[in-house]
Amino acid sequence: MGCFSCFNSSEDEKLNPVEESSKPQKQSQTIVSNNFSTLPSGGEKLSSKSNVRSKRELLLPRDGFEQIAAHTFAFHELVAATMDFHPDTFLGEGGFGCVYKGRLETTGQVVAVKQLDRNGLQGNREFLVEVLMLSLLHHPNLVNLIGYCADGDQRLLVYEFMPLGSLEDHLHDLPPDKEALDWNMRMKIAAGAAKGLEFLHDKANPPVIYRDFKSSNILLGEGFHPKLSDFGLAKLGPTGDKSHVSTRVMGTYGYCAPEYAMTGQLTVKSDVYSFGVVFLELITGRKAIDSEMPHGEQNLVAWARPMFNDRRRFIKLADPKLKGRFPTRALYQALSVASMCIQEEAATRPPIADVVTAISYLANQAYDPNKNDRGGRNDEGGGKFDLEGSEKEDSPRETARILNRDTDRKRAVAEAKMWGESSREKRRQSEKRTSESNSTTG
């Protein structure tokens, strides 16, 4: 799917300054100003007087906007749609700006209108990237961009309306009258979000690194169908013989992969780490960073990692709001996936395709808390669970035997491979601790 002819894949995170007098432009490129003087906005061009506001400009091929199918709105249309951005239509606020619920007068369609905060963390470049990305990328697990507005200094994005809000809304700080997500729904959301990442990593050409995967950016439609949103920080992945993209560090604390946070070296495995953090949020019900938790428990990954080495502590990782209603063996498998995703070394994390395979299997094994037909192999949460003989439980052969109940043998093999890698990692850690202990006592 070669859909990125309008991106410069070698583009640095910094916008490219252009000196017209010193450097002739290549014929294959034109200059698109930060103030979008070439971007149509409701049938009008921006005033050329505003071109002097910034000398920073972004290189794009000359046909970049001709390929954009998204509708262009005039600002007055979106003012009418949101009743002049009335407080009653306010949905939330993020790094980009405020989001409002609206209804388009021409079609009657209910939409979400995101208005750029000119004093916010994100700016014109992020606006441009989001318009381009969502105009060119289409998948059931990516939010649909309906159109945009670039009238004067106004920057707005118009999306399909996602009636159930974000995953964050359903995981954290729930009001007393709001029911927590059950186990089945959590696995379904995780599988859908992973498929969205898989599309970006493996189907887009070149691959797209999302860079801001977090629970607040996973929006939920009818039936809790998940879609990734907010693509302003997305980057094209490395091509050719390049192993990474070097860029300034952006994203959200608690979700950023350690190698990216320390070096600015970005790969698709950085997204896999972020996915692992969100998957841990789904399993534990905890926030990635929570300053209200006791010292030592404020960082979700730092709190959970030590527990991965002791299966007797796995039950403690389950969200108390589940009230024990989860299949214990599936909990163990889900934690195995999460532990692989948040490995310190990027190379040891699984590709997102393997993650999709594993979590799709878990999502397809519907859990019924009122039935106990698992023959002791897949006990309910809080029930008897064989915590001994972990080598057998961790072996690829044993996992494959269980997964072979599914008709998709390919899925079973990939699942078994993941559990095997997890087992080997545990053994390496155990041998390392034993060696350190021996050297200390010696």
UniProtKB/TrEMBL annotation:
<keyword id="KW-0723">Serine/threonine-protein kinase</keyword>
<dbReference type="Pfam" id="PF00069">
    <property type="entry name" value="Pkinase"/>
</dbReference>
<dbReference type="InterPro" id="IPR017441">
    <property type="entry name" value="Protein_kinase_ATP_BS"/>
</dbReference>
<feature type="region of interest" description="Disordered">
    <location>
        <begin position="366"/>
        <end position="442"/>
    </location>
</feature>
<keyword id="KW-0067">ATP-binding</keyword>
<feature type="compositionally biased region" description="Polar residues">
    <location>
        <begin position="24"/>
        <end position="35"/>
    </location>
</feature>
<dbReference type="GO" id="GO:0090404">
    <property type="term" value="C:pollen tube tip"/>
</dbReference>
<keyword id="KW-1003">Cell membrane</keyword>
<dbReference type="GO" id="GO:0002221">
    <property type="term" value="P:pattern recognition receptor signaling pathway"/>
</dbReference>
<feature type="compositionally biased region" description="Basic and acidic residues">
    <location>
        <begin position="11"/>
        <end position="23"/>
    </location>
</feature>
<feature type="compositionally biased region" description="Basic and acidic residues">
    <location>
        <begin position="370"/>
        <end position="414"/>
    </location>
</feature>
<keyword id="KW-0472">Membrane</keyword>
<dbReference type="InterPro" id="IPR008271">
    <property type="entry name" value="Ser/Thr_kinase_AS"/>
</dbReference>
<dbReference type="GO" id="GO:0010183">
    <property type="term" value="P:pollen tube guidance"/>
</dbReference>
<keyword id="KW-0449">Lipoprotein</keyword>
<dbReference type="GO" id="GO:0005886">
    <property type="term" value="C:plasma membrane"/>
</dbReference>
<dbReference type="InterPro" id="IPR011009">
    <property type="entry name" value="Kinase-like_dom_sf"/>
</dbReference>
<comment type="similarity">
    <text>Belongs to the protein kinase superfamily. Ser/Thr protein kinase family.</text>
</comment>
<dbReference type="GO" id="GO:0004674">
    <property type="term" value="F:protein serine/threonine kinase activity"/>
</dbReference>
<feature type="binding site">
    <location>
        <position position="114"/>
    </location>
    <ligand>
        <name>ATP</name>
    </ligand>
</feature>
<feature type="domain" description="Protein kinase">
    <location>
        <begin position="85"/>
        <end position="362"/>
    </location>
</feature>
<keyword id="KW-0808">Transferase</keyword>
<dbReference type="GO" id="GO:0045087">
    <property type="term" value="P:innate immune response"/>
</dbReference>
<dbReference type="GO" id="GO:0004672">
    <property type="term" value="F:protein kinase activity"/>
</dbReference>
<dbReference type="InterPro" id="IPR000719">
    <property type="entry name" value="Prot_kinase_dom"/>
</dbReference>
<dbReference type="GO" id="GO:0005524">
    <property type="term" value="F:ATP binding"/>
</dbReference>
<keyword id="KW-0418">Kinase</keyword>
<keyword id="KW-0547">Nucleotide-binding</keyword>
<feature type="region of interest" description="Disordered">
    <location>
        <begin position="7"/>
        <end position="35"/>
    </location>
</feature>
<protein>
    <recommendedName>
        <fullName>Protein kinase domain-containing protein</fullName>
    </recommendedName>
</protein>
